[in-house]
From TrEMBL:
Signal peptide: none annotated. Its main location: membrane. Keywords: Cell membrane, Membrane, Transmembrane, Transmembrane helix. The chain crosses the membrane at residues 54-74, 118-137, 166-193, 205-227, 239-258, 270-287. It is found in: Cell membrane. This is YihY/virulence factor BrkB family protein. GO terms for cellular component: plasma membrane.
């Protein structure tokens, strides 16, 4: 029993309180750690796993229609550019390693069968494939709109949204084919240099590093195109590029894990079931990476500085006073008429440039 007049002993802080205090101290002293924690908090706050699950559902349903539509279109392009089909097959195999192959070896999905089915697709079939194939991009766009917290006044309507999805699908296909070509050329160039300058055992490591770096660069371009076109967020390019790099690194790690797993299942009686499950898991993790990269970009220091500047300029405007995990107000304001026109014209301009590039490619092939 304590003596009379003695001050009561202070209760020791609980373990959870000490842990929170240490985390708060680490966040204040290490900006990179604060960025990681802010990203996770934002991803949780916008229900990133649920958004990715919805995109996965539509992605699985859209997988075969998108492939069939791609082969139907590439069949026409191949009349002017014979190597287009081989480039597309290489691009698909790079995105779905161990899941699809040209001839369906080891229980993988046969691109040859999909190609034969796509040859009989008519105009009505193309429209049906187009509508069902865009479901994944629509689901992914809604997830990114939530992750980037795009105001409701800036969302696309149904018609414009489908046109943006179509444009994004075309750009993604073009970026994939282009990146695969560049990656193949870079790897071949590095291999030729190693043949000219023998480096022994180190040569294989150098070639592997070149392959990984080129793969990350190509995937970064893919993720950046998705972020820039689908939701059209008001974020600095630097922040979007950081999110794209994070998604690209995670994508390359996933590919390195999936290929050995699918190789070990070749010839197994459960290969077909494992293939379907792997496809669903692959689409889900790709969707999660996309949304997580968006959360990383949304909580990047460049975005925080940009949002603070916007809030200072719009201080006199009525705005919501909801504080997010970055310590910023989250104003929901409509764009000016000029900004809306620019936002609507950007996809049209990109589509025009894409069409000009295809036309020039066909003209050169004809010459």
């Amino acid at each position: 029993m304590s003596e009379a007049g003695a001050p009561p002993e202070r209760a020791k802080p609980k373990l959870i309180d000490r842990l929170k205090a240490r985390i708060a101290d680490a966040r204040s002293r290490r900006p990179w750690f604060d960025h990681v924690m802010s990203t996770q908090e934002h991803y949780t706050r916008v229900h990133g796993n649920l958004l990715s699950g919805a995109a996965t559902y539509f992605g699985f349903l859209s997988f075969f229609p998108i492939l069939a539509l791609g082969f139907a279109v590439i069949g026409k392009v191949s009349e002017y550019y014979p190597d287009a089909q081989d480039s597309m097959i290489d691009a698909i195999e790079s995105v779905f390693p161990g899941i699809v192959s040209e001839n369906g070896a080891d229980g993988t999905i046969s691109l040859e069968q999909i190609e034969n089915s796509a040859g009989a697709v008519g105009l009505i079939g193309v429209v049906a494939l187009l509508y069902s194939g865009l479901g994944w991009l629509s689901g992914l766009r809604e997830g990114l709109v939530a992750a980037f917290e795009v105001p409701a006044t800036e969302k696309y309507n149904f018609v414009v949204g489908k046109l943006v999805d179509l444009l994004t699908l075309a750009v993604i296909g073009f970026v994939l084919i282009l990146s695969v070509g560049v990656a193949g050329a870079a790897t071949g160039f590095a291999d030729a240099i190693l043949d000219f300058i023998p480096m022994g055992a180190a040569g294989g490591a150098v070639l592997w590093c070149v392959t990984v770096i080129v793969g990350i660069a190509a995937s970064t371009l893919l993720f950046f195109a998705i972020y820039r076109l689908l939701p059209d967020p008001d974020l600095p390019r630097r922040a979007l590029l950081q999110g794209a790099v994070l998604g690209a690194v995670g994508f390359e790690v996933l590919k390195s894990i999936v290929v050995p797993i699918m190789g070990s299942l070749g010839g197994s009686p459960f290969a077909a079931l494992a293939l379907a499950i792997t496809l669903v898991v692959w689409i889900n993790y790709f969707s999660r990476l996309t949304v997580y990269g968006a959360a990383w970009a949304y909580t990047a220091p460049a975005t925080v500085a940009h949002q603070r500047a916007v809030q200072r300029q719009a201080y006199t405007r009525p705005a919501a006073t909801v504080v997010d995990e970055r310590g910023l107000d989250d104003p929901v304001m409509a764009r000016t008429t000029g900004e809306r026109i620019v936002a609507a014209a950007r996809p049209v301009a990109v589509l025009g440039l894409f069409a000009v590039g295809i036309r020039e490619l066909i003209r050169r092939s004809g010459d």
